Amino acid sequence: MRDEGGSDEVKAKQSFLSFILHPSSLCLNLMRQYTRTFRVRHYELDSFGHVNNAVYANYLQEAAIEASSDAGFTPAWYAENGTGWVIRELSIRYHLQASYNDELEVTTWVSTVRRVSSAREYSVTRVADRAKVARARVNWVYIDMKTGKPARLTDEFVRALEPADETEELGIRLQNPRKTDDAFRYRARRRVQTYELDTLSHVNNAVYLNWIEQAYFDALRAAGHPIEQVRLRGWWALQGGHEIEYFEPALDNDEIEIVSWVCEMGRVRGSWIHEIYNVNTKKLLAPPQNFIDDVLRGR
Predict the structure, then answer these.
(1) How open is the CA angle 117-149-286, to the nearest 5 degrees?
(2) Domain boundaries, the chain
(3) How many CA atoms does the CB half-sphere of 51 hold within 13 Å?
(4) Residues 110, 161: contact at Cβ < 8 Å?
(5) What's the pTM value of the predicted model, to 2 decimals?
(6) Is the pLDDT of residue 16 over 50?
(7) Which CATH architecture has domain 12-161?
(8) How many CA atoms lie within 13 A of 298 on its CB side?
(9) Secondary structure of 66-123 in the HEC alphabet?
(10) Domain 178-294 classification at class level
(11) Which secondary-structure segment (H or E) carries 279?
(12) pLDDT tens digits, residue range 223-236?
């Protein structure tokens, strides 16, 4: 199998049974897992020479689509039945940076299923040394494509997904931080571009990560610390994790305002909140609840 848009070889492992180790016992959990291997391409790197955060969101989405197909629910099946999935929440913790030509395994499984939604887990591992690169959770909502409203999941769906019925803390949020409620609010505006849309004609969920990253660097520049000066000082500004809720879709040519501020501070890490608004409707589109940045490494 080859990855669309490139010549890199891509491997996919079929679903299998998995053992879950509990503190008190070992039990067999009929948990369907699917693993997709990606090789990092050069254009997926950012200006720091690492895989850009938005690329991980693309990896997660592709792995989810293939995992669903492996369970019998292909894109064609959804089109025929007039249903689909949209992302309600995205949580991801970055553990280390991946570089060009790294081979990354994205393993995904469903942890919980509710009436109209499910939580899908992801683990991103570097194949060469089995190092943990990232750990993520995405809450998906099942919808009727004609009405745009949530649709009830059938028993057939639940049986095929084989949820693990277990979740774990991802470790995104700061421990015992200092609150900074009076922090300055930085504001940035942009207009949705056609190339940012997905197959539903909405802004793709990964694009919001690009917007947030740019808003962060715009805030640093406005505060007198442009990224080129930060680099000259030998500092790195690395994002340690995201928690994003998606409320309303952004559409082509919408004018967007992003309001950003530091909400918490730790010893070497800080948390930012970025609220994304549609300027015309004033509706909140996607507010990351805890956008963690290792703002200055080693300070």
Answers:
(1) 70
(2) 12-161, 178-294
(3) 26
(4) yes
(5) 0.83
(6) no
(7) Roll (3.10)
(8) 4
(9) HHHHHCCCCHHHHHHHCEEEEEEEEEEEECCCCCCCCEEEEEEEEEEECCCEEEEEEE
(10) alpha beta
(11) none
(12) 998 988 888 888 87
